[in-house]
Amino acid sequence: MSTIMVLNGPNLNLLGSREPAQYGYETLTDVEVMCRDAASALGHDIDFRQSNHEGILIDYIHEAGRRIKEGEMLGVVFNPGAYTHTSIALHDAIKGAEVPVIEVHISNVHAREAFRHHSYISSVAAGIVVGMGVQGYVLGIQGLVHKMKQA
Hints:
Number of domains: 1
Site (Transition state stabilizer): 18
Function: Catalyzes a trans-dehydration via an enolate intermediate.
Enzyme class: lyase
CATH topology: Rossmann fold
Distance between the termini: 17 Å
Radius of gyration: 14 Å
CATH architecture: 3-Layer(aba) Sandwich
CATH class: Alpha Beta
Structural class: alpha/beta
Strand order of the largest sheet: 2-1-3-4-5
Pathway: Metabolic intermediate biosynthesis; chorismate biosynthesis; chorismate from D-erythrose 4-phosphate and phosphoenolpyruvate: step 3/7
Helix content: 25-40%
Order of helices and strands: EHHEHEHEEH
Oligomer: single chain
Number of strands: 5
Protein backbone atom coordinates (compact mmCIF):
# COMPACT_ATOMS: atom_id res chain seq x y z
CA MET A 1 0.00 0.00 0.00
CA SER A 2 1.61 3.24 -1.09
CA THR A 3 1.09 6.63 0.46
CA ILE A 4 -0.28 9.86 -1.00
CA MET A 5 0.97 13.06 0.56
CA VAL A 6 -1.64 15.80 0.89
CA LEU A 7 0.02 19.19 1.35
CA ASN A 8 -1.72 22.38 2.40
CA GLY A 9 -0.18 25.81 2.20
CA PRO A 10 -0.65 29.05 4.11
CA ASN A 11 -3.86 29.90 5.91
CA LEU A 12 -5.48 26.55 5.19
CA ASN A 13 -5.24 25.83 8.91
CA LEU A 14 -8.03 28.45 9.17
CA LEU A 15 -10.51 26.46 7.06
CA GLY A 16 -13.98 26.56 8.52
CA SER A 17 -13.52 29.98 10.07
CA ARG A 18 -11.74 31.99 7.33
CA GLU A 19 -14.13 33.44 4.75
CA PRO A 20 -16.63 30.58 4.94
CA ALA A 21 -18.66 32.06 2.07
CA GLN A 22 -15.59 31.49 -0.11
CA TYR A 23 -14.10 28.32 1.40
CA GLY A 24 -16.98 26.64 3.24
CA TYR A 25 -17.41 25.54 6.83
CA GLU A 26 -15.40 22.32 6.73
CA THR A 27 -12.23 22.42 8.79
CA LEU A 28 -8.82 21.13 7.79
CA THR A 29 -9.49 18.18 10.12
CA ASP A 30 -12.68 17.45 8.15
CA VAL A 31 -10.65 17.56 4.93
CA GLU A 32 -8.09 15.16 6.38
CA VAL A 33 -10.83 12.64 7.27
CA MET A 34 -12.28 12.94 3.74
CA CYS A 35 -8.83 12.37 2.23
CA ARG A 36 -8.10 9.35 4.42
CA ASP A 37 -11.44 7.79 3.50
CA ALA A 38 -10.97 8.46 -0.23
CA ALA A 39 -7.42 7.10 -0.26
CA SER A 40 -8.34 4.06 1.79
CA ALA A 41 -11.13 3.20 -0.65
CA LEU A 42 -8.46 3.15 -3.37
CA GLY A 43 -5.98 1.11 -1.32
CA HIS A 44 -3.67 3.94 -0.23
CA ASP A 45 -2.59 5.71 2.95
CA ILE A 46 -2.46 9.48 3.47
CA ASP A 47 0.36 11.59 4.85
CA PHE A 48 -1.51 14.85 5.58
CA ARG A 49 0.42 18.05 6.28
CA GLN A 50 -0.03 21.83 6.45
CA SER A 51 2.45 24.66 6.76
CA ASN A 52 2.31 28.43 6.53
CA HIS A 53 6.01 28.46 5.60
CA GLU A 54 7.26 28.15 2.03
CA GLY A 55 10.57 26.52 2.97
CA ILE A 56 8.85 23.80 4.97
CA LEU A 57 6.56 23.03 2.00
CA ILE A 58 9.66 22.79 -0.20
CA ASP A 59 11.24 20.36 2.28
CA TYR A 60 8.05 18.26 2.19
CA ILE A 61 8.16 18.15 -1.61
CA HIS A 62 11.82 17.08 -1.53
CA GLU A 63 10.89 14.36 0.97
CA ALA A 64 8.05 13.24 -1.29
CA GLY A 65 10.44 13.02 -4.24
CA ARG A 66 12.77 10.77 -2.25
CA ARG A 67 9.89 8.58 -1.03
CA ILE A 68 8.49 8.26 -4.55
CA LYS A 69 11.88 7.09 -5.82
CA GLU A 70 11.97 4.55 -2.96
CA GLY A 71 8.57 3.23 -4.08
CA GLU A 72 6.69 4.06 -0.90
CA MET A 73 4.80 7.12 -2.14
CA LEU A 74 2.56 7.64 -5.16
CA GLY A 75 2.57 11.44 -5.39
CA VAL A 76 1.25 14.65 -3.86
CA VAL A 77 -2.13 16.37 -3.80
CA PHE A 78 -1.20 20.00 -3.13
CA ASN A 79 -3.22 23.07 -2.25
CA PRO A 80 -0.45 25.69 -2.21
CA GLY A 81 -2.82 28.48 -1.17
CA ALA A 82 -1.50 31.95 -1.99
CA TYR A 83 1.95 30.52 -2.81
CA THR A 84 0.32 29.33 -6.03
CA HIS A 85 0.59 32.84 -7.39
CA THR A 86 3.99 33.79 -5.99
CA SER A 87 6.31 30.84 -5.54
CA ILE A 88 8.80 30.03 -8.25
CA ALA A 89 10.63 28.10 -5.51
CA LEU A 90 7.72 25.64 -5.13
CA HIS A 91 7.58 25.28 -8.92
CA ASP A 92 11.30 24.47 -8.98
CA ALA A 93 11.01 22.01 -6.07
CA ILE A 94 8.22 20.04 -7.77
CA LYS A 95 10.12 19.99 -11.06
CA GLY A 96 13.49 19.22 -9.49
CA ALA A 97 12.25 16.45 -7.22
CA GLU A 98 10.17 14.98 -10.09
CA VAL A 99 7.04 14.75 -7.97
CA PRO A 100 3.68 13.96 -9.59
CA VAL A 101 1.43 16.70 -8.19
CA ILE A 102 -2.27 17.33 -8.47
CA GLU A 103 -2.86 21.02 -7.76
CA VAL A 104 -6.07 21.68 -5.81
CA HIS A 105 -7.92 24.92 -5.10
CA ILE A 106 -11.12 25.02 -3.08
CA SER A 107 -12.43 28.15 -4.78
CA ASN A 108 -12.50 28.93 -8.49
CA VAL A 109 -9.39 31.10 -8.60
CA HIS A 110 -10.22 32.14 -12.18
CA ALA A 111 -13.45 33.80 -11.02
CA ARG A 112 -11.64 35.82 -8.36
CA GLU A 113 -9.13 38.68 -8.34
CA ALA A 114 -6.87 38.93 -11.38
CA PHE A 115 -3.71 38.20 -9.36
CA ARG A 116 -5.13 34.74 -8.57
CA HIS A 117 -5.44 33.81 -12.27
CA HIS A 118 -1.77 32.84 -12.66
CA SER A 119 -0.28 29.73 -11.09
CA TYR A 120 3.43 28.94 -10.89
CA ILE A 121 2.44 25.39 -9.94
CA SER A 122 0.15 24.50 -12.86
CA SER A 123 2.92 24.11 -15.44
CA VAL A 124 4.59 21.37 -13.37
CA ALA A 125 1.36 19.73 -12.13
CA ALA A 126 0.09 16.44 -13.49
CA GLY A 127 -3.46 17.79 -13.09
CA ILE A 128 -5.50 20.59 -11.56
CA VAL A 129 -8.79 20.64 -9.63
CA VAL A 130 -10.30 24.11 -9.19
CA GLY A 131 -13.51 25.39 -7.65
CA MET A 132 -15.01 22.12 -6.41
CA GLY A 133 -14.87 23.03 -2.73
CA VAL A 134 -13.13 20.63 -0.37
CA GLN A 135 -14.45 17.79 -2.53
CA GLY A 136 -11.61 18.83 -4.85
CA TYR A 137 -9.18 17.02 -2.56
CA VAL A 138 -11.04 13.74 -3.11
CA LEU A 139 -11.07 14.38 -6.86
CA GLY A 140 -7.35 15.13 -6.67
CA ILE A 141 -6.64 11.83 -4.91
CA GLN A 142 -8.73 9.92 -7.43
CA GLY A 143 -7.04 11.73 -10.31
CA LEU A 144 -3.54 11.06 -8.97
CA VAL A 145 -4.27 7.34 -8.55
CA HIS A 146 -5.74 7.18 -12.07
CA LYS A 147 -2.81 9.04 -13.64
CA MET A 148 -0.20 6.94 -11.89
CA LYS A 149 -1.86 3.71 -13.04
CA GLN A 150 -1.43 4.97 -16.60
CA ALA A 151 2.25 5.90 -16.09
